[in-house]
Amino acid sequence: MKILVTGKGGREHAILTALSESPSKPQLFAYPGSDASAALATRVDVPNLTELIAFMKREAIDLCVAGEEAWLVKDEGLANMCENAGIPCWGPRKESAQLEASKAFAKHFLKRHAIPTADFAECQSKEEALAAIKGYPTVLKFDGLAAGKGVAVCPNAEEAEAFLDEVFTKRLFGPGNLIVETCLTGPEISIFVSVCDDQYHILMPARDYKRIRDNDQGPNTGGMGAVASRDLAEPSLMQRIEAEIVQPTVQGLIKDSLRYRGFLYCGLILTPDGPKVIEYNCRFGDPEAEAVLPMVSGDFAEYCFAAAQGRLTPELISFKEGWSVCVILASAGYPASSRNGDVISGLDAVTAAKVFHCGTRQNAAGDYETNGGRVLAVVAQGTTRNEARDQAYAGAAKVKFDGQQSRTDIAKMHFE
Ligand code: AMP
Ligand code: GLY
Questions:
Q1: Closest residue (by CA) to atom 5 of ligand 2?
Q2: Which of 24, 121, 356, 382 allows an S-S link to 132, with CB 3.0 to 4.6 Å?
């Protein structure tokens, strides 16, 4: 079996690793992939999706797995183009991927299907947004893909105004509306669901840590670490999430004729009134994938291949007992900017943890150096949360590069 994975970050490195460890031993390709993933997959260098589809046809690729979100809504949509070419794709069609690409689309979907979420207003100007803010803190969300940077939780009017200027005056994220949302409180949890038409399979839940600094301080990032375990949420909570969120979401997709085959990520806040959706993503989480996928046993490649063809088969995989912890090492300046070219040392010294490459490249000497905001994901498993955490941090401590940033409270905060 030949499988091509789209994307180039730590999530895709983790997906490629899980596929490569599958008993069905698929031959792997990555578009565009990274220098580190080249050890597992042949990198495909083509200029656009049309060429990618042509490559997949020529190479007789059996399955395309969508890693990152951007391709899902580009041109006619990766999944739509795969379907037209007769290539099974694990990732939803463009019209369904609006659940992630447009926050307004997602909010209207949630409201229409009575799925619990924060109250909201959709605004077209700074003035309209200011009038819609009912109090502080408030949450402002740009209505489009913004690489995790289009959301601001604003404690006061000054910060709200500054973000509104970025959106409407500087147009930092391009054209688009803005959602003003009520601020919810409670711990967050990421629920991953394999959705295959009207069937679904809930995977291992995870929690990510979005703020740059310890104790959830500083600006939001793409994610500074994650923790995953079957024990992260009690069975009664998982049942409530399934009944109140997952089932109505899958039924809503069917009612709205939004065809969906792929991972669906429900980002939830566990409020005192119950779980509420803060966002949908139409792909696996990053860095949650780096924590969850090492916990998968069975044939992940067969699982994705069958599901992409309409045969969701949960029995093909299972999730290990215990805990998995992922610590992200980020580069200087992140998340406002990122510094490339800082040489990384110590990678070979990491033995009891796995290292997934999020943003690295090999320099002329063959050494890895920083190439992006999130640089590496150091991941370890353990019987207990603390065991996994200690192993992950022990691994992370061996890796060095100038300007390195990481949190010290991954898998600790929100538990103790
Ligand atoms: P999103 O991209 O919509 O997931 O938002 C990014 C982050 O902003 C979330 O993970 C939360 O930490 C925070 N956030 C988003 N919406 C809300 C909300 N309504 N109330 C509180 N925090 C939120
Ligand atoms: N962990 C957040 C995301 O994947 O969007």
A1: 285
A2: 121
pLDDT tens-digit series, residues 323-360: 999 999 999 999 999 999 999 999 999 999 999 999 99
Q: Which domain holds residue 176?
A: 119-182
Question: Does ligand 2 come within 6 angstroms of the Cβ of 194?
Answer: no
**Cα of 287 from ligand 2 centre, angstroms:** 7
Q: What's the structural domain count of the chain?
A: 4
Rounded to 5 degrees, what angle do the CA atoms 153, 234, 19 make?
80
Q: Which long-range contacts (CB under 8 A, 24 or more apart) does 150-155 make?
A: 150/103, 151/220, 152/220, 153/183, 153/220
Instruction: Answer yes or no: do 333 and 302 share one domain.
Output: no
Residue 298 CB–ligand 1 contact under 6 Å = no
Residue 110 lies in a domain: no
Give the ligand 1 atom nearest the CA of 103.
3
Query: pLDDT, tens digit, for every residue of 258-280?
Result: 999 999 999 999 999 999 999 99
- 107 lies in a domain? no
